[in-house]
Amino acid sequence: MKRLTIHITLFFLILATSNQLFCQSINADSLYVTARSQAHIQQYDAAIASLRVLLANYPERYDAHLLLCSVYSWEQKFEQARSAYQVLLEKYPTVEVYRGAGRVEMWDVAWADALALISRGLNNYPRDTVLTLLKAQTLTELGRTEEGITLLEEMLPSPQADSLLQELRPQNTKNAIRASYYYANFNEVFTPWHIGSLEYERRTKLGPVIARLSRARMFNQIGQQAELDFYPKIASRTYAYLNFGISDRTVFPNLRWGGELFQGIGASTEISGGMRMLFFEPTTVRIYTAQIGHYAGSHWISARAFLTNIQETSNAAGAFTYRKFIRHSDHYFSLYANYGNAPIQVVSLPEILRVNTQRLGLDYKHDFWQRTLLVRLMAEYQWEEYVELRQVNRWGIEFGLEKRF
C-alpha cells in the first residue's frame, strides 16, 4: 500500500512538471502576434486555434480575449462572439468590450439587444462618442429616428456625428403614401377577388395617423371603405392602436371601430390586448384579441389569439408570425401560419362566418433610395370551410408600394 501511494505521488509530480514545462515553452507574446497575423490575412480558423491555445495557458490575457471576440465577429459566428464577449463583460467590462459586443448585436440585426447593451455601456462610459454613435444608429433601426437624430445633434460639431446625420435625416420622414393590391383566386364557388387600398400616413408628436381608402370586388359586388388609424404614444414602451371606419354597406362592414394596447416588457418582448367591433346589417361581430411577441436576435416571433363572438356563438383561433430581418428593419421576410377562423384581414361577413380556416403565407419587403421607397410582395394559401360544408382552396397574392417623404 505504501509503495502504491509513492507511485501515485510520483505520477502527479511528473504530470504537474510536464504541464509547467509545456506552459513555459509557449511564448504568449509570439503566439498572440501569430494569431493577429493570421486574422489579418483572414485565416480565421487558424487564428481561433492559436488564441484558444494561448488562452488555455494564459486565461488572463485580455488582448487575446478581445482578439478572439473580433475574429468570431468578422467570421459572422455571432453566437460564439456573444459568448466570448460575455466572458469579457463579466471580467473586463471596458469601453472596447461594450463597443464590440454592441456591434455584434447590430451586425446580427438584433436591434433591441443592441440598444440594451449599448445603453449599459453608456451608463458606465457616458462620454464615449463611439457608443453614442452606435446608440443613435440603433434607435433609428428601432423606428425611433427622432431620438437618434437628437442624440447626434448634441454631439455636433463632431465629424462622425455629422456624417451619420447626413445618412439618417432622409429616413426621418413625416409622411408616407402606400398603395397595395390583393388578388385571390379560388378552385370553385367564388369568382376572383380584387382588393385595392391607398393610404396616407403622417407622423405626429402624439403618434402616427393613417387615413386609408379601400375598394373591393367580391361576390360580384363592389364596395368602398374609409378608415382612420391612430397609434398614440403613451410612454416610452407603451402605445395604443385605435381604428374607425365606415363603408357603403356592400362588401365591407357598415361601421367598424377597435382598439388595442401594446406594452413592452424588458428589452425584447411585447404584449398587447384589445378588441374590434364590426357592424354588418343586421349582424354585430365582436373580436377579442391578444398577442405576445419576442425579438430573438434578428428574428421576431409572435403568437396572436382571437375570440370571435357572433350570433351568440364564439370561435377561437390563433395566428403565428415569424420574421427574419436581413439588413435592417425595412428589409425582411415573414412567414405566417393561422389556424381556425383567424380574422387577420377582415373585409366581408362571409369570411367571418367561415367554419374553419388554415392559412400559410409569406412576404418579402425590400427598401430602395436610402429607405425612402419600399416594395412588398406577399403570397398565401388558404383552406376554407363554409357553413354549407363547402371546402374551398384560395391562392392569394398582394403587392405593396410605399413612398416616404
Model description:
This protein is an alpha+beta fold. It has 2 domains: 2-171, Tetratricopeptide repeat domain (Serine Threonine Protein Phosphatase 5, Tetratricopeptide repeat); 175-404, monomeric porin ompg (Porin). Helices cover 35% and strands 42% of the residues. It has 11 helices and 15 strands. The chain has helices spanning 2-25, 28-40, 44-57, 62-74, 78-91, 95-107, 111-124, 129-141, 145-153, 159-168, 349-352, and strands at residues 175-186, 193-203, 208-218, 221-230, 233-235, 238-247, 255-265, 269-279, 284-296, 299-310, 313-328, 331-339, 356-368, 373-385, 391-404. A 14-stranded antiparallel barrel has the order 1-2-3-4-6-7-8-9-10-11-12-13-14-15. It starts with a helix and ends with a strand. The model is unreliable at 1-25 (pLDDT under 50).
Name its key features.
14-stranded antiparallel beta barrel, 2 domains, disordered N terminus, single chain, alpha+beta, 405 residues, Porin
How many strand elements? 15
Report the mean per-residue pLDDT as an integer: 88
pLDDT < 50 stretches? 1-25
Taken as a percent bin, the fraction of beta residues is 35-45%
| CATH homologous superfamily classification of the largest domain | monomeric porin ompg
What is the CA-based Rg, rounded? 29 Å
CATH class call of the largest domain: Mainly Beta
CATH domain topology of the largest domain: Porin
Strand order of the largest sheet: 1-2-3-4-6-7-8-9-10-11-12-13-14-15
